[in-house]
Amino acid sequence: MNKLADTIQKKPWLGWLLFLGTLGAVFLLGLFATSISERRLESKKSFEWITPIGEQESDSAVWGKNFPREYDSWKATQDTSFKSKYNGSTMIDMLEINPRLVVLWAGYGFSKDYNQGRGHYYSVTDIRNTLRTDETAPGTCWTCKSSNVPRLMNHLGVADFYKDTWMHLGPEITNAIGCLDCHDPKTLNLRISRPALVEAFQRQGNDIKKATHQEMRSLVCAQCHIEYYFKDDGKYLTLPWDRGTTVEAMEAYYDEYQFKDFTHKLSRTPIVKPQHPDWETFQLGIHAQRGLACADCHMPYRSEGGVKFSNHKVQSPLNNIANTCLVCHRESEETLRNSVYERQDKISELRTRAEDLLVRAHIEAKTAWDLGATTQEMEPILAFIRKAQWRWDFVAASHGASFHAPLESARILGNAIEQAGQARLSLVRVLSKHGKTDAVALPDISTKAKAQSYLGLDMPSLKKKKEAFRQETLPQWENKAN
Amino acid sequence: MNKLADTIQKKPWLGWLLFLGTLGAVFLLGLFATSISERRLESKKSFEWITPIGEQESDSAVWGKNFPREYDSWKATQDTSFKSKYNGSTMIDMLEINPRLVVLWAGYGFSKDYNQGRGHYYSVTDIRNTLRTDETAPGTCWTCKSSNVPRLMNHLGVADFYKDTWMHLGPEITNAIGCLDCHDPKTLNLRISRPALVEAFQRQGNDIKKATHQEMRSLVCAQCHIEYYFKDDGKYLTLPWDRGTTVEAMEAYYDEYQFKDFTHKLSRTPIVKPQHPDWETFQLGIHAQRGLACADCHMPYRSEGGVKFSNHKVQSPLNNIANTCLVCHRESEETLRNSVYERQDKISELRTRAEDLLVRAHIEAKTAWDLGATTQEMEPILAFIRKAQWRWDFVAASHGASFHAPLESARILGNAIEQAGQARLSLVRVLSKHGKTDAVALPDISTKAKAQSYLGLDMPSLKKKKEAFRQETLPQWENKAN
To answer: Which pTM value belongs to this model?
Structure first.
């Protein structure tokens, strides 16, 4: 440095050069810093309160005044177009494309009506319109459908909310699943608003408040995307997790309580209908094992004007591979899509085999009853059917199971296939004892209509009743709400 | 630069500084280059011929003089210690730990003796000693066991090699699987030495010579680690790939030829015994789909003194996670090991279910035959058993299937379970028609000895015969060889 000083002393223009160069560099640095702080400011803006949010604010539009990006993306759940091999369009009629389901759920609402789920935006619309809801439904049915629920639960008390009727609570339910369901209106932190999940954690000796942020990015979804049942006459929403969350652990739980959702109309099997054990299945797959949360793929981060936010258009990652899979994987979109399709195809194959065997088992059991089989003869058979159907439906009902945990899904279906086979094997013996030595012929259940007619479902009258509800009751509900 | 020249002209010591600095930098660069060229030289050394290798050189020790690292690591296949949940020690007696296998292979050599495979080093030793080889075995049995085979095939002609007897060729077979089996002795390039694979490619209209180096790093393994059969009386080693390499495609091939490896001793089912469709299964898993070759995980690259070479101690990657899985995956060894174990556990569960059903099906079929069932009654049943056993054994026989392609393995086993169930269902009807209306009791097959005794296998005499072979024939073979 002394030599440099020496040189500069002898050549003053060199010093000027250095001085001006430094000035230029500092100026550029200043520009850069301004750009950063501008972006910071912009990103802070989204946390500047334009409108305060009430503690029970169920209208997501009010939240949206403060959080336009999250709100806009939430609103985008209106768009139900879907890139998937099995879900090409909107709200597929699942009974139409797979009439076996009608027989498998004979005696339960799902055999009347079961459509592909749509975005959160439609949660209230769709539950109002399905043939599965009527005056017999309890208040519990609203639990997962609306951001009005936290206020109602607070007002009525949780147990009384569940005990109420779906019809009586109807006018109070106006908003679809929205901001309040997962966020604290003061801090915006993720928050569990539904008691069933908190209670399930408590019964296992865990405190859900200790969950990390990354865990919460799955647990807020797990408020609804889990297996649950309506306990006892109070229809208290309960998660069957006390022995664990695997298919076997939950089965053991239900068996201990001798719980059933319905008695199968044909086979008279006491059936547990899995809801959508999505979170439970996800835990058993590689993505959860490597630390991912639901939101990582279903609500990926997005940047707009320097603001990073979670895309609240909850949807299949297949609709958005670039911002989900490609964050970690280096393959082309097409390669990754085909990898998903391959998993879906293999699970679909096993699922169809299980369904085919189970349909036959139900119909053969009905034949055995008709021929005078005794309860004693039928009990072990119905136990196998119950086991097989629980397993089959666990995979069938779990959204994305074939991707979330393909091997576990295959294992479960392999067991379902075995148990359905065992049921049918015993049925051959019982049928033969009652004079039926050849195969039981299958009725024509090749379409939804034929399968429903085989079950004696009076679909025109069910549809008429729902139409009356839409014409007469719904306007009253909306009047009361306004 | 003009200004710098100006300055230097006015201050000559500055020029000297620049000159000496450059000198120093050039000197350091020279040192670095020397180090690189030394390492290059060292790495070239392994390709300097110390001893020429003959065109049919079957003694790997001769190759080893030129390639000591590859040879040393090949010799290390003597070490058969194994880190795996299911393979804790050396050469497990598979029939002892799973006596169901004895029943499943009744009527075939595998029910006499079936041990866990050992390293390439033991290939000749183990085939000599197994109870499965005797004077009835054809020459074909040697094909995959020794680096003497290329010379013999060249000398005798391929078809005549196969047609020869195992006993007659015995004295010629002295070297275990080694260098010549996969390498060209002139260029050291990977080379296919066995005709069956080349012929299978040809029949599909493909030229194996066009394979890339990375493909060859699997295809040299696929010379033996594939499904094959001995065609017709000439026992011509043939790959059943003409319709494809999936479990269904190969089944269709065998069905077309009405091929069977043996008739099951109990059920009289014409059974195809899969060998080890390792390459075929691997193709259906994620690692092959993402471009990996067998050698990537079973012969990972290693560096010694600047020389990079493939570790020829072919073994399970679980024995060497640091140099295999961890090349791509960022998890801990324990996490990765547990991920493998989880896959193995799930497949093992389905496999056991399939085995249990199949054992019962074979025994129930025997009972039906004993009671006078007709061929017409039994044919559809045996067709189901054949299908189920082909699928079960496809997974059971394929080394590492539960890791290479877990979901495909589960899919195959799910189908096996279904088909075995179908067989048993039909058996109940046939049995009942012939007076047997209750369940067929299982014999005691709880140990290998009990299962073998149930089949009427005279194990002491088989062992005595093999002992005589060891005492009398083997020394003669070795005399002739020397």
So the answer is: 0.91
- State the Cα–Cα distance between residues A299 and B243, nearest whole angstrom: 44
Q: How far is B248 from chain A (nearest CA, A)?
A: 14
- Would you call A417 and B414 a contact, using CB atoms and an 8 Å cutoff? yes
Question: Contacts of residue A432 in chain B, CB cutoff 8 Å?
Answer: 428-429, 432, 437
pLDDT tens for B354-409 read: 999 999 999 999 999 999 999 999 999 999 999 999 999 999 999 999 999 999 99
Q: For B123-180, what is each residue's pLDDT tens digit?
A: 999 999 999 999 999 999 999 999 999 999 999 999 999 999 999 999 999 999 999 9
Q: Mind telling me how many Å the CA of B182 is from chain A's nearest CA?
A: 32
Would the CB atoms of A421 and B357 count as touching at under 8 Å? Answer: yes
Domains and CATH numbers, chain A: 66-481 (1.10.1130.10)
Pairing label, strands A262-263, B262-263? unpaired
Q: Are B122 and B177 in contact (CB under 8 A)?
A: no
| Span B297-308, pLDDT tens digits | 999 999 988 889
Long-range contacts of range A373-382, CB-CB < 8 Å, 24 or more positions apart? A373/A430, A373/A431, A373/A433, A373/A434, A377/A430, A377/A433, A378/A268, A378/A430, A380/A426, A381/A423, A381/A426, A381/A427, A381/A430, A382/A267, A382/A268, A382/A269, A382/A270, A382/A423
Burial class (CB in 10 A: 0-12, 13-18, 19+), B448: buried
Nearest residue to B154 via CA among B86, B39, B56: B56
Which percentage of chain B shows pLDDT scores above 90?
84
* DSSP-based three-state secondary structure for A301: strand
Say if CB A264 and CB A272 are below 8 A apart. no
CA atoms within 13 A on the CB side of B136: 4
CA B299/CA B257 separation, integer angstroms: 37
Neighbouring-strand partners of residue A301: A310
- Strands annotated E in A65-155: none
Q: Tokens 């020790």 sit at which residue?
A: B61
Q: Whole-angstrom Cα distance, residue B104 to residue B265?
A: 9
3-state SS of chain A: helix, strand, coil percent to 5?
A: 60, 5, 35
For the ranges A28-42, A237-251, B380-394, which has the lowest average pLDDT?
A28-42
Buried b (16+ CB within 10 A) or exposed e, B158-185: beebbbbebbebbbbbbbbbbbbbbbeb
CA distance A399 to B8: 77
Helix (H, G, I), strand (E, B) or coil at B146: strand
How do residues A360-419 score in pLDDT, each as one tens digit? 999 999 999 999 999 999 999 999 999 999 999 999 999 999 999 999 999 999 999 999
Residues 318-357 of B with CB under 8 A from A: 331, 339, 342-343, 346, 349-350, 353, 357
